[in-house]
Design brief:
This protein is 64% helix and 3% strand. Strand 1 and strand 2 form a beta hairpin. The two termini are 15 Å apart. It folds into two domains: 66 residues, Winged helix-like DNA-binding domain superfamily/Winged helix DNA-binding domain (Arc Repressor Mutant, subunit A), CATH 1.10.10.10; 146 residues, Four Helix Bundle (Hemerythrin (Met), subunit A). Helix 4 crosses helix 7 and helix 4 packs parallel to helix 8. 37% of the residues are buried. Strands 1-2 form a two-stranded antiparallel sheet.
Amino acid sequence: MLRPAVGNVFETTVEQLGTAIRLGVFVAGEQLPPERDLAERLGVSRNTLREAIAALRESRLVTTTRGRGGGTVVTYAGQPLAGSRRAGKVTTAIRHGASLEDALDFRRVVEPGAARLAATRRLSGDQRDWLAESCRAVREAEAGAHRIADSRLHLAIATLTGSPMVVEAVTRAQAALGELLAAIPVLRTNIEHSHEQHETIVAAILGEDPDTARTAMEEHCDATSALLRGLIG
């Protein structure tokens, strides 16, 4: 079931490997194929593969040993993955399966549309400054404040549409997303991709380019969805 990754290669690699593990393609106690072979099969660099495996390791799907005879071994044995990690505790269960897909599909419909609509509006100087500052705040946020800054940016985009119903829909999408993201590790590579995507979206809105704004937001949503499908399923 593994195939060359396209688009968001890091997130897609995590999705493919995580899904393969959860579906039993690789079972508990089994060692993953050698890095060289796996990277070739997925069509990614070995560095991208290592970053993806690190994400799986942080989510307790695999463990890795170094040296002669070492490698990456599957540790996931079919147990539900963790719920929220806030305050260092595992709390309530989170969305899986159809419920997860519903939340991701809802966001994929709502947020690209909001970005496109925002790019059609004639924004005031204050609105433009607010959007640019909201984007900058996400990149500059400390680890503990990153998720809040990220959500504020998405809500700012929704607000600039001028539609209360769009704001309500994006709020619901962000609430569900926050619940899901709390259940997976903060992944540096994904965060950097997210920053770049945010900047592309904001530039398109400020440049009054609705098609680019929509496409960039779709890619942004797809990257996050790939991670969540791979690590939560």
